[in-house]
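Case study B.
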Amino acid sequence: MTESALSIESYRDVAPRGAVDFLLQLAERARGRRFVHVNSTRVGGGVAEILRRLVPLMSEVGVKAEWEVIKGDPDFFAVTKAFHNALQGYDQVFTDALLQHYLEINRSNAERLDLSGDLVLIHDPQPAALIERRPAEGRWVWRCHIDLSTPQRRAWSFLRRHVLRYDAAIFSLPAFAQQLPIPQFLVYPSIDPLADKNRAMEPAEVSRLLEPLGIPADRPLIVQVSRFDRFKDPVGVIAAYRMLKRYHDAVLVLAGGGADDDPEGARVLADVREAAAQDSDIHILDLPPDAHLTINALQHAATIVLQKSTREGFGLTVAEAMWKGKPVIGGATGGITAQIIPGVTGYAVSSVEGAAHWMRHLLAHPEAAARMGEAGRENVRQNFLITRQLREYLSIMVHLTA
Amino acid sequence: MRNPDAAHAARPFALTGCIELREILGRRARDERELMEEIEQAPAESIYYHTDSVFLRRPLVASAYPNDFATWVATQIRDQVLAERLGMVDPFLLGNVEDLREALLSLLDDHLEHLNPVPRVVFGDPFFFVRSHLIEIPTGLAASTLPALRAALAEVDVSAIYLHALDARSRRGIPGGQIAQWIGEELGLDALAEQVGKLNPYVGGLERLREQMLALLDAELGAAPAHGGDR
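Model:
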């Protein structure tokens, strides 16, 4: 069965026991109501990736689910990119003309799109100003997928006056919420367990996918999958790995992307290569954005997965790794701490030494590592699968439109 | 003695599940005194979220500590003594949220009396207060006999186990929970009702609780042991 043809029934084998039937019962309360998602792209990025699966599932369970995408010109996307960065705490400059352009593009989209719905869920800042033209009927909710914990003041002040007009907002972590006079709900993002990036893989398929990469299969494999970004601390991972090598003969894989179209990413990748210093046991893979099967195979092959970020939005690579039954050592930041149960599914660390210490511990205690892997998979089954996110979106609809 | 296979209830037991909507309150604590002050002022649904309904979010995998307050104190403040004491506060024995709040406050007050300075977060995250909105949804499953109850409990969404077995104790003041109550009152199986009502929720999550419940029902029905929990 192709990915796009998967139905809710396909999730019975991976979701918690009884969860699909319960979801269908919940959906009866929302049957026939119109649930409109609006974002800024149909392809690329985590939001589009999850909507591509979530919207058909919503329709299948009886909700009139629609997915609208706003259109903009390069100036619009330049200002929304700057918004994105500023809201995550980076210095950005906005001219009044750019902000005005952002509003105009939102107004023209509001004219073009059908925004009538019982619940209209606006994803991220790009379409947030559509709220200016909301119809009289229906409830509007702003879904923020980004880290708003330390926003640049001017960007947030501008956006805030739009957010205030919504009926509610949704954030991925409590730390991202703001002082707002509207209800702010907490909904964790999720992974799709049946997507190429996360589906089950037999060892032979894993070997076939990894063989061209030249990664040895005869020693413990430490894997970190993330963009080449300083906040993911890839150089810190190499330092921790060197400490580990004093005690265990292991192999390190740093797999990521983002170096092609991002000058900063290219600089980080150069630093990582320099830190690796021709060590043949350190494999640095600059992967294309669609290398889902390769990433899946790497996570399946890993003995331990790292996500040693020093700053993180949610960090769904942690859930992806736990879903493959791997113990995860992650930086004690952002959503990583919401996913790892310390000492049960992995460890949250605050230093290079912490990462090295727990890697050494897990390699010396493979039975403990296996237990953690199993616990991690169950933790993901209960809390981080798309079926849980679907359940929460439907329950927000039921709650707000009752 | 009543035959457990034949006992038939006049009132069927309808299983209801629940979904927890989580509302971020914007209140936070950075040290143990602030934690105490916020617990004093937080809505009851927030105290409930950080204690009782932790079980709903960890149905199979138990953390080292059974409530968010103890976990935060242990992992972010790193005050093991307070974490251990908070970890032993049992919402399911207290029967209502206000008694639970009072127990937490007394414990914090006693602990802080002996400490100066007040332990605070240095490297970690603040404690964020969240409020629970529990939405109850009928599962469509119901039972009038013990075999039917056994079948329904084996397949129902685990949130129904939470609602009937644990939430009923702490929010509805039913000491053994609704499942035990129904077995006793409707089926007249008092000994089984007492056993089910005394099941220990601190066994590693709701799925383990479900397994234990199924094992008790199987023993009563004389059937082979149940295989609940593991997929």
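Chain A has a mean pLDDT of 94. The remaining cases will be described in the next quarterly update.
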